[in-house]
Amino acid sequence: MTGELFVIEDWWYPEQQTPGSTSLARYRCPACGYERLICSPTHRIDKGGTVTPSAVCAFPGCTFHKYIVLKGWPTPPMVDEDGS
Ligand SMILES: [Zn+2]
Questions:
Q1: What is the domain count for the chain?
Q2: Per-residue model confidence (pLDDT) at position 72
Q3: 63 CA from centroid of ligand 1 (Å)
Q4: Does residue 28 lie in a domain region?
Q5: Cα 46 to middle of ligand 1, angstroms
Q6: Over residues 29-49, mean pLDDT
Q7: Rounded mean pLDDT of 19-48?
Q8: 66 CA from centroid of ligand 1 (Å)
Q9: What domain range includes position 34?
Q10: Residue 84, SS3 per DSSP
């Protein structure tokens, strides 16, 4: 079985931690735009940016439910790299 990965480009690091869990990343649902938070230990993100288990959008009426991969993880795509 080959799981299809939905590539998430619109994600960033959370600015603060959620009590009782560890916030790993935030992303915007590609279907509805609702902001979602990826927390440990509910979710984990491997070195390639793949999030497990699958991501479910909690926005009422949104049916987005896929395995996602964060493009560019661990470096958010919108961060300018300071050249050395
Ligand atoms: Zn959604």
A1: 1
A2: 93
A3: 7
A4: yes
A5: 23
A6: 94
A7: 92
A8: 11
A9: 5-70
A10: coil
